[in-house]
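Hi W., the iron/sulfur cluster complex you wanted:
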Amino acid sequence: MPGEIIMEINEKCVGCGNCHAVCPMGAISLNTEGISVVDQDKCVECSTCYRVLRDEGYGAAFVRAVRSVLSAFHLQYMAAVDVCPTGALVQPELEYPRSLRAAFSDPTVVHAGTGVGGRGTEEIKTNDVTGRLGHGEAGIVVELGRPGVGAHFRDVQTVAMALASLEPEYEPFNPVTQLMEDTKTGKMKEEVLDEKVLSAIIEAKTRLERIPEYLSILQAVQKEIDTVFSVGVASRCLPDGSVPHQKWVEEAGYTLSPNGKTNLGLGRPLYGGD
Ligand code: SF4
Ligand code: SF4
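Structure:
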């Protein structure tokens, strides 16, 4: 993209390696000249390297000279672990579609389409406030990617298209849904498919009794993608505290995680409530 600045390391780099350790994608490595470089396909523009490492403000020539003098005495220059000694990391100015990487991966970026930071969705687990799920309904959440692995939108599309055969209601206030060309097919906009993010969350709504069909499709589609995903199922608790989706998850051959979240509804509902 002409004029676009992506996460880059400039010629001031002295190859101390501090940024390698903080990159969650393992995207930074040393080249043959001892300068660090960013693999632009692996980089998800999370800006961790830029945000975490403070610019120590040394000139590259000074650091190289100190290093060279010390090495003559078999000593080594080591920068403190929380700095980039020469401020060689360049803050990105991203253009669409690369900017999507930051929107899904950088917790300091607020998603333009939803106004929510992080991955751009408050998720179905905030149902006590948002009222996205009604009685008899189930929320299906598929989170693709993890630090160290990430996920391309082409894999997100593969899962969304597989689920689309069950005619789910994709959550409109979700950044993945907003990148879909057609929510009936789950097809995503062509230009985003090669973009990679730390993780992205598909959120869909269906009826409780259809949960086994969704889990079956997800079981099958996992072999077609080049990343990992975790699946969440949600429903509105009954007055006796029981969890309506438990029966349907177990019918599909799964057990609910003991770490499941139950929101008590202490937040102020943004919907009518019942
Ligand atoms: S922290 Fe700075 S000087 Fe050290 S390797 Fe990374 S970019 Fe280069
Ligand atoms: S922006 Fe994130 S993924 Fe890219 S090089 Fe920096 S730490 Fe790694």
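The first strand starts at residue 8 and ends at 9.

W.
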